[in-house]
């Protein structure tokens, strides 16, 4: 007696897996990026093979999770990150402050963010300019001060 297990996937689950796949074509990703399904757009935004032109579009998405996935994507350019540094969501701005492609001018801007968590991430970023760390070492938040001071001391 043999047994067969059948796993049925919904079309949306198949699309999510395809959007996450490194084998997805640019044409497929363009279609996923225009989907009404925010999870599909988020998966596309997070795919490291998503073309920059699509990431640029998804960076303006209405869904915070999609914009966050763009900010987390290792191939997101400094120009897109600069745009996302003004995002209404502090969580997106925090991810931008952590990203390795974020340039010094964007880090300077984020160092003045109203959300202390964003400033804390800037203080922890090894690419943050020294003058910005010096300002953060005088921040109104003790955690930010401490981390900026530690980062400054590590550079000496």
TrEMBL record:
<feature type="region of interest" description="Disordered">
    <location>
        <begin position="122"/>
        <end position="156"/>
    </location>
</feature>
<dbReference type="InterPro" id="IPR004830">
    <property type="entry name" value="LRR_variant"/>
</dbReference>
<dbReference type="InterPro" id="IPR011989">
    <property type="entry name" value="ARM-like"/>
</dbReference>
<protein>
    <recommendedName>
        <fullName>DUF4116 domain-containing protein</fullName>
    </recommendedName>
</protein>
<dbReference type="InterPro" id="IPR016024">
    <property type="entry name" value="ARM-type_fold"/>
</dbReference>
<feature type="compositionally biased region" description="Polar residues">
    <location>
        <begin position="143"/>
        <end position="156"/>
    </location>
</feature>
<dbReference type="Pfam" id="PF01816">
    <property type="entry name" value="LRV"/>
</dbReference>
